[in-house]
Amino acid sequence: MEKVQCLIVGSGPAGYTAAIYTARANVKNVLFEGFQPGGQLTTTTTIENFPGFPAGIDGTELMMKMREQAVNVGADVRSGFVQSIDMSKRPFVATLDGGATIEADTVIVATGASAKYLGLDDEKKYAGQGVSACATCDGFFYRKRVVAVVGGGDTACEEAHYLSNLASKVYMIVRKDYLRASAAMQQRVMEKENIEILFNTNTVGLFGDNGVEGAHLVKYKGTDKEELFDIAIDGFFLAIGHQPNTAFLGGQLELDEQGYIKTGLATTATSVEGVFAAGDVADPRYRQAVAAAGTGCRAALDVEKFLAAL
Ligand code: NDP
Question: What's the pLDDT tens digit per position in 157-187?
Fold first, then answer.
């Protein structure tokens, strides 16, 4: 069976940074990119807060540069999906999507997080027919049409702003009476005349005979001012946050109450010796690209130290 010193799962800023550091330290590594090479940043537009790019940089371009840098310094970057890892003994044994197995002395889990849905049956019913969790992927289909974005954080504001340049009108459906997004993002949204924010509003369902044609909403839910109303829309975009991608771990690592991998306060070590976690999958708090890259670096240094002590 093929054997490596460090198996890296995930190809966001955390995974690629871990690959760069481990490769430069002469640790025999392999990184599996998963279903979405480059991760969440490939579904965003310009990144303005990653240091080193004063004019901003396209998310996909940034990730391709990180990938190229990893390959240039000798990392073994492969497409493929790690289906499971047996962590009951070392070396760990990972099983890939095609059934192949690979042994590893250490693992860095950097699988990030995926978009959350509201949990409505209608989201499934209209999946691919008007329901999306990625404005930059699907926004193109809604040129000169009417769309709604759910959420009041930075992602929702960013998606609403992006869509407002394509669609004729964008509703933002916000459950509280304020936006949680940063002041700069809020201002961008407020400045757009074709964005209408529906505060104190929740979605209860979607309707349409031919894909999404509208949403059933409720204002002031659960109060005596509660009011049901419908809006006519062609697209319904979710932007209510993300959940960590840990299903493939099969409960072998300790998670916090929100499902993020628990690590030490000053290290990336998890509850299993030799397994480390980096990036959004272990970060309920900051969830920034630069923070993910930082923990990818830390995980690689932790791996080096661990291997040296074997
Ligand atoms: P957030 O958790 O910040 O915001 C989620 C939003 O969705 C909130 O408004 C929340 O409402 C709402 N929400 C959550 N669950 C539901 C639900 N069931 N029904 C209705 N509304 C719901 O997530 P984001 O993805 O926006 O951001 C994540 C992190 O990434 C943040 O740290 C953010 O700053 C960062 N980010 C930064 C960007 C940048 O700097 N350019 C761009 C994008 C993200 P409520 O407020 O009521 O909880």
Answer: 999 999 999 999 999 999 999 999 999 999 9
Residue 180 Cβ < 6 Å to ligand 1? yes
Residue 46 — very low, low, confident or very high, per pLDDT cuts 50/70/90? Answer: confident
Q: What is the dihedral of CA 96, 303, 275, 258, to 10 degrees?
A: -110
Comparing CA positions, the residue from 120, 124, 115 lying closest to residue 153 is 115
User: Distance (Å, rounded) from C-alpha 191 to C-alpha 193?
Assistant: 6
User: What are the phi and psi torsion angles at 114 (to 5°)?
Assistant: -120, 160
Q: How far is the CA of 152 from the centre of ligand 1 (A)?
A: 6
49 ligand 1 Cβ < 6 A? yes
Of 236, 218, 243, the C-alpha closest to 125 is 236
User: Could you give the residue ranges of the DSSP H alpha helices within 126-262?
Assistant: 135-138, 154-164, 183-190
Structure tokens at 78: 């492969």
Domains of the chain, first to last? 2-114+242-308 (3.50.50.60), 117-238 (3.50.50.60)
Ligand 1 touching residue 155 (CB < 6 A):
yes
> What pLDDT was estimated at residue 137?
79
As annotated, the active-site residues are: 134, 137-138
